[in-house]
Amino acid sequence: MRADGVAATGLGLFGVLVTLVPFRRGERWAWYAQWYYPAFWIAHLAGELPPGKDHVHQVVFIVLSLAGLLLLPVPVFFPRVTSTA
Asked: 40 and 66 in contact (C-beta within 8 Å)?
């Protein structure tokens, strides 16, 4: 249980630091690094699906992380290249 707490704290700190500095600057590597979160929640959801357990929070985190990566910042990280021909 203690190891889970340390891992969750480290994961949270990693996410906050990447989000506050390089992600807000529009550095593309930070966008790729943030894909860890939806992958983590999808793996967490797929690994524990016994009937009767509440998995609503996992689905909410998956939707929020995908929306935050796909809907909002894509034009910032991948601007359209216009030709000058």
From this structure: no
Structure tokens at 54: 């509440």
Residue with tokens 């929020």: 64
Distance CA 12, CA 9 (A): 5
Token pair listed for 61: 């985190």
Dump pLDDT digits (tens) for 39-72: 988 888 887 655 556 778 888 989 999 998 888 7
Separation between Cα atoms, residue 13 and residue 60, nearest integer Å: 20
Q: What are the start-end ranges of the H helices in the chain?
A: 2-18, 24-25, 28-33, 36-47, 56-70, 74-77
